[in-house]
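S.,

As promised, the magnesium ion run. Input:
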Amino acid sequence: MIPATSQRKVKSSQVPAGEKFSRQMYEDLEDTLLAPYAMRSSQSYGRTHPEKEHELRTAFQRDRDRIVHCTAFRRLEYKTQVFVNHEGDHYRTRLTHTLETCQIARTIARALRLNEDLVEAVSLAHDLGHGPFGHAGEDVLAQLMKGHGGFEHNTQALRIVEKLEESYPGFPGLNLTYETREGLKKHVDPSGGTYGRRYRTLEADLVDFADEIAYTSHDLDDGLRGDLITEDEVEKIYLWHHASSYIRRKYASIQPVQKRRLIIRLIINRLVMDLIHHSRYQVERLRIQSVHDLRKIHKPILGFSKEIDRHHRELKDFLVQNVYQHYRVVRMTDKGQRFLKSLFEVYLKKPQVLPPDVQKRARQDGIHRAVCDYLAGMTDRFALDEFQRFFEPYERV
Ligand code: MG
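Predicted complex:
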């Protein structure tokens, strides 16, 4: 989390040349660099199962590393964002979406002098709870689990990091810090939602916005790439139009692909810069001086200016109508829903077909929850293979 240039600010007299690097040095650096309302790793409420602190890494850096090394994180590579994975190699997947979210979030965190490591941990974990086939997958699991505790991806992300990952002998889950886990409890609509449900840090609030900036810009890009929408249609959107007029003025001739990429970059940059400027203003206006002050405020703190918020909503509405509800997207994900439903029924009717570890979990948590966890954990392609194994007569099981 130390930007290279900031190291210059640390006086050489404070850190003797021969001194060995330690976590405490990093924690001191946080005190120097971070804003008073940023979450410091040394101030963390800690972990459910107490552990000795690491020699080199802060508590949040350790959280981030545990997330990157977990199974659910690797599965993001083959889970649908909007386009089903096998539709093409260049579309965003949950993994690339997660990485884009993380990069955007880190830039904003640094600019606002928030804790970049906490932001990184929360961003990398924010979509771990998504099942296969995007939101359609989530919807069908929610339907199937009605009356059995339901299904929601944020709750599922918590379940994964608190219970389902089995990497450590001493405890279930990843034993992440309290702040990282609370950061996963989102996320209503960041521009108007309630913030009372979680222990508030600006770091977690920030990830909600970075997530939105990432998906609106890359879904626009993927929508154009996949021919779901055309450049003529998106010219009607203010954010696109503004960027494309600028490019027309600046470059006499430019390749269409470069132009599209440049516009997307300009849109991201505009949203990010606006969020940073407006959020700084808000923090000052609300006189937020400490992490403690955040507890008393139950309305949005970070956010876009009114003008950009309006333009961003215009883009989101456009994407809902023209990309997420496009018949080709609906076909892709609807197919996925049918697979999930059929598999759910097969497993429920005859739990003996389930792998032993799932059967074991069914004895602990009930068959519905165990089957739901199993399905939610699947990648798109695993779900497709599994469907084939059950329903294709000549497929080997
Ligand atoms: Mg996301």
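The CA atoms of residues 133 and 333 lie 6 Å apart. Confidence is low (pLDDT under 50) at residues 1-8, 188-196.

- D.
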